[in-house]
């Protein structure tokens, strides 16, 4: 077999199979659609031509060769008409070219009649170029070739115009690919007419039909990757059906093989048992196999709009309950990466000072440190527009400033989605292209404004919560400093005592030296007295330093609220060290009642300090207000079911029952809130107990109060052990 014959048979066979499959799938997807019907007819015609050409070139006699040639040309005569028809339907030119399309079909029927009933198109057949038989043209054959070429050129012109004028990126890309692939494919097909007229160009004749094969494969590519004709569902069902058929046949074959080849050596198994066994296995594996095939076809061949919508709905549901900005960003990126399989995603968020937009999170991007000033052209361009920017839309792309396009390229982005709350641009979401190389459809793009609004609201809400937390830190700091202010006299006394001791020790040494009291003393006695004085100075200086360090650590404003292991007994010890002098001055006895082996709680250390300080100061104020001259504060820490219970009980004036709920309201207080200059007046802000309750609630705890007028009050605070919930 010579190379020309071999390549013709191989090329035509592949064309026949591929195009027939495409034609069936397209027609099954939308059998009533004119575009689908015309496209399928065109592919059937080319497949028909390929199949009967094989039979002609291997025919055993000229009689059979002529018959198969006429069968072959029966399909060929409809290729030009169906080509022009489906391209005109695709480009929406079918109404304008309705007369031309009808004329094409009439002319095709005319050529068909001439093929079968005259010798005007096919004169005869004879051996050519190593093929058994090939067409010998009649006088009208050249007219048909002109008819063929004119319609190919018409189709290419329509596709090129559609490419130039389309605003939708998907249509534009489809038209571009169809134009080039059709040009290559039909150029190869036209080379067959050279053989009809006995022109054999070296290498061209052998490879010309592969040009048609390129067109076949390219059409499959456009259908799969660029949603041409929207036949994904029928292809998916076909592939799943074929896969399930293979599974069923495979199970039957494997069971039969095992039974006949292995089990039959020892046992006689009737065919009925083999059939029943195979059926049971098929029943078991059928549904898992179906689900697996559905997932595989979705994952590797398609990214359907339905999946797109589900993914975006899932994203909206996931972020609505998250109160941390960083976690919202991670959730967005994780959802997009796993469900939509985008090559890159970048999330920029407005900085707290509103002077810039920084990358909060991203993947598929190299420049993660990028920060864009608010006056940057990229930011301003998005701030001035409400719609998203799509680089796949050529009309939109050509109007973009160069700097904007450069920033998009720098961040590997195809879509720029502004995140707005009213007129405020709170962030920017950038999407790269799909890993499947599919364009975003108009339906998919239609979902994005709603999702963008939800993402923007989620960020704004999370930022408001963040500001509220920081405000609570500020309130807590004010309350803490106010509490220290009420203890200032005791703290001052606590510092003055060791300072006075230091002064006295140094003064005594100076006095004795000035009055020559050491002149007659033995050196050992002088040395001993000096070292004893220095030891007292060192001890008292250390006391002052410890007090200052405790006050500094307590008064320092925390930068952020964080979770850590906290030993409550250590917090209480630290607070008592600060205010023990104040308690002694007011003759308040502190009784501690702790369970052994107390567990730690998960909370912010400074927040627990705030809770304990406010409770202890309130207890002291209640005792002072009672005016008994002395009192007791009992601090209990005990294990409770699932947590730790802290009790602070005082022997003070007590709280009326009607105020049990009010005392936790912000700014409610029974203390003096005036500018009373009396240093003994008990003042308050009304924030202490409110902040205590908010802090305790933040860590999953609760606070309760019990009180009897004239006898005292007990505050019980419960913290769960191991509470690690997001703040």
The total strand number stands at 15
Distance between the terminal alpha carbons, to the nearest Å?
80 Å
CATH topology of the largest domain: Rhopdopsin 7-helix transmembrane proteins
Quaternary form: single chain
The level 1 CATH classification of the largest domain is Mainly Alpha
Overall 3D geometry?
A: elongated
**Helicity, as a percent range:** 55-70%
How would you write the strand order of the largest sheet? 5-4-3-8-7-6
Main pleated sheet = 6 strands, antiparallel
In the CATH hierarchy, the architecture of the largest domain is Up-down Bundle
Instruction: Please give the domain count.
Output: 4
CATH homologous superfamily (4th level) name of the largest domain: Rhodopsin 7-helix transmembrane proteins
| Derived structural class | alpha+beta
Mean pLDDT: 77
Q: Which ranges are low-confidence, i.e. pLDDT below 50, for 5 or more consecutive residues?
A: 486-490, 672-685
* Count of alpha and pi helical runs: 21
Using the CA coordinates, give the radius of gyration: 44 Å
């Amino acid at each position: 077999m010579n190379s020309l014959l071999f390549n013709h048979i191989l090329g035509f066979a592949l064309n026949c199979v591929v195009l027939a499959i495409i034609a069936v799938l397209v027609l099954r997807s939308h059998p009533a659609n004119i575009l689908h019907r015309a496209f399928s007819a065109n592919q059937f015609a080319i497949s028909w031509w390929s199949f009967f050409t094989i039979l002609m070139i291997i025919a055993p006699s000229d009689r059979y060769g002529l018959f198969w040639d006429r069968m072959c040309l029966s399909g060929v005569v409809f290729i030009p008409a169906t080509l022009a028809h489906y391209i005109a339907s695709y480009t929406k030119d079918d109404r304008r070219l309705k007369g031309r399309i009808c004329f094409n079909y009439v002319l095709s029927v005319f050529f068909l009649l001439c093929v079968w009933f005259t010798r005007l198109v096919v004169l005869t057949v004879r051996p050519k170029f190593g093929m058994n038989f090939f067409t010998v043209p009649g006088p009208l054959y050249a007219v048909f070739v002109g008819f063929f070429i004119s319609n190919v050129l018409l189709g290419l012109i329509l596709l090129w115009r559609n490419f130039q004028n389309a605003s939708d990126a998907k249509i534009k890309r489809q038209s571009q690919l169809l134009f080039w692939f059709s040009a290559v494919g039909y150029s190869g097909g036209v080379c067959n007419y050279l053989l009809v007229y006995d022109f054999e160009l070296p290498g061209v004749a052998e490879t010309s039909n592969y040009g048609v094969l390129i067109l076949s494969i390219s059409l499959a590519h456009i259908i799969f990757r660029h949603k041409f004709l929207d036949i994904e569902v029928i292809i998916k069902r076909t592939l799943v059906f074929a896969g399930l058929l293979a599974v069923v046949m495979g199970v039957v074959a494997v069971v039969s093989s095992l039974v006949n080849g292995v089990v039959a050596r020892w046992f006689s198994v009737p065919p009925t048992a083999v059939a029943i066994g195979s059926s049971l296995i098929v029943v078991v594996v059928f549904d898992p196999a179906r689900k697996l095939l559905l997932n595989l076809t979705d994952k590797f061949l398609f990214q359907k709009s339905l999946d797109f919508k589900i993914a975006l709905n899932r994203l909206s549901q996931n972020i609505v309950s998250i109160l941390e900005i960083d976690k919202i960003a991670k959730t967005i990126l994780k959802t997009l990466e796993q469900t939509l399989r985008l090559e890159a995603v970048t999330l920029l968020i407005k900085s707290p000072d509103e002077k810039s937009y920084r990358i909060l999170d991203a993947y598929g991007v190299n420049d993660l440190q990028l920060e864009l000033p608010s006056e940057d052209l990229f930011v301003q361009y998005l701030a001035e527009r409400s719609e998203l920017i799509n680089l796949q839309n050529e009309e939109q792309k050509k109007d973009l400033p160069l700097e904007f396009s450069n920033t998009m390229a720098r961040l590997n982005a195809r879509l720029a989605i502004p995140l707005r709350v009213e007129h405020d641009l709170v962030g920017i979401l950038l999407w790269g292209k799909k890993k499947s190389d599919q364009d975003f459809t108009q339906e998919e793009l239609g979902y994005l404004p709603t999702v963008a609004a939800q993402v923007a609201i989620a960020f704004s809400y999370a930022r408001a919560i963040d500001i509220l937390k920081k405000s609570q830190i500020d309130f807590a700091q004010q309350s803490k400093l106010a509490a220290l202010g009420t203890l200032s006299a005791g703290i001052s006394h606590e510092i003055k005592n060791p300072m006075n001791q230091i002064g006295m020790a140094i003064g005594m040494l100076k006095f004795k030296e000035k009055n020559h009291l050491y002149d007659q003393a033995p050196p050992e006695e002088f040395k001993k007295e000096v070292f004893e004085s220095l030891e007292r100075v060192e001890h008292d200086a250390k006391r002052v330093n410890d007090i200052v360090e405790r006050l500094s650590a307590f008064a320092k404003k925390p930068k952020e609220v964080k979770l850590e292991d906290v030993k409550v007994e250590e917090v209480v010890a630290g607070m008592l060290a600060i205010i023990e002098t104040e308690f002694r001055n007011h003759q308040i006895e502190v009784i501690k009642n702790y369970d052994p082996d107390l567990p730690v709680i998960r909370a912010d250390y400074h927040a627990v300090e705030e809770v304990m300080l406010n409770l202890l100061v309130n207890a002291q104020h209640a005792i002072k207000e009672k005016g008994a001259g002395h009192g007791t504060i009992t601090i209990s820490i005990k294990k409770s079911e699932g947590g730790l219970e802290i009790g602070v009980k005082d022997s003070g004036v007590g709280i009326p029952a009607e105020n049990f709920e009010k005392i936790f309201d912000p700014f409610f207080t029974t203390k003096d809130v005036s500018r009373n200059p009396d240093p003994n007046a008990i003042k308050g802000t009304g924030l202490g107990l409110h902040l205590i309750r908010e802090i305790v609630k933040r860590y999953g705890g609760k606070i309760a109060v019990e009180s009897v007028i004239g006898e005292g009050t007990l505050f019980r605070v419960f913290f769960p052990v191991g509470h690690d919930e997001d703040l």
